[in-house]
Amino acid sequence: MKNVAVIGAGTMGNGIAHTFAQNGYQVQLIDIAEASLLKGLQTIKNNLDRMLAKEKITEADKEATLANISTHTDMKNGVKNADLVVEAATENETLKLKIFKDLDEFCASETILATNTSSISITKIATAVSNPSRVIGMHFMNPVPIMKLVEVIKGYNTSEEVLTSIFKLSEAIGKVPVEVNDYPGFVANRILMPMINEAIETLYNGVAGVYEIDTVMKLGMAHPMGPLQLADFIGLDVCLSILNVMYDGFKNPKYAPCPLLVNMVMAGKLGVKSGEGFYDYSENKKAEVLAKQFKK
Fold first, then answer.
1. Annotation marks residue 198 as catalytic
2. What pLDDT, in 10s, does the model give residues 80-128?
3. Separation between Cα atoms, residue 142 and residue 186, nearest integer Å
4. CATH number belonging to domain 191-293
5. Per-residue pLDDT tens for 181-197?
6. Checking CA distances to 101, which of 1, 76, 210, 281 falls within 20 to 30 Å?
7. From the candidates 47, 116, 139, 276, which is the catalytic residue?
8. Does the annotation count 151 as an active-site position?
């Protein structure tokens, strides 16, 4: 496999495209919005510049990586020569099912169809295609060019050949693949999201403030980032979506989203992407704690 199409130019999509392109793969980055493609490419350029400044890559490496990426707003044209498609669109089941239905029509029969979903059933997504054996989960971690883990999720009908191919491919791009079974939240989010939700509950119940909760987890548990700051970076809307998937899948109240999280998402306070979440990310504040907002 040397030709990879990536659907979605957002945080995960442009990171996946960057990683494949830097490892010599031809990448077609696809998004319905031209503005999103331009923003995604600029993010890739900025990340490459940071790597160049740290002498992790050369100027030739940077130019070769960018030369390996082409952009498309038309999915049919973007995926026509792909050996692998990695879907990294919004975490919305209806949208993903529609994308995979289209991929089933647009792609060659031997093309492997992967999804970067962080919680939605691979088996369910595979129902949208005529041959579900070629559908698999590739859950990358953010930031993709840096984080080593790829959760490889085998759906009920995913073939062993596809699983083996994705393991080899993940290793070829410098990642560490880990096989995970297809249950809500897989492994990473089944463990991570209840912790983030509990941190929000702790704040909601007035046990401690944002700074205090994050500091306890960083200094006491050796986490590189506190759970509330991490939630901001993931996106509070994404956290809410994942918790809802797990709550619906397990019918267990321990996965029920905290009311504070629900209210913040409804208010548009989504974290870094909106400029404000548990911290203020505006230029003059630089991630200042928004303690005043969090009263029960």
1. no
2. 999 999 999 998 999 999 999 999 999 999 999 999 999 999 999 999 9
3. 16
4. 1.10.1040.10
5. 999 999 999 999 999 99
6. 1
7. 139
8. yes
